[in-house]
Predict the 3D structure of the following.
Amino acid sequence: MTSSKLPPEEPFPEDLAVLDDEAVEVLNSKVHRQIDAEYAEEGEVEPETSFRHEELTEELDQRDEDPGLSLVPEIQAEK
């Protein structure tokens, strides 16, 4: 069973740009759930979780500004 959260010790993609929109949105959801869990359990967010949240926010903002960026590079080459 996959977790609905992404703890700091679990792997995180080095380059979000190579992921499709759905994969980025799933990661974003898991990081948000992790933030909620960390606040509830520890009263603060782990630095790694905060960093991941910032990276995902930047990636999603870039994709909103330029929808062409949301395509996986192999798909862009075919168009």
About this structure: Residues 3 and 30 are 8 Å apart (CA to CA). DSSP finds three helices and no strands in the chain. The two ends are 36 Å apart (CA to CA).
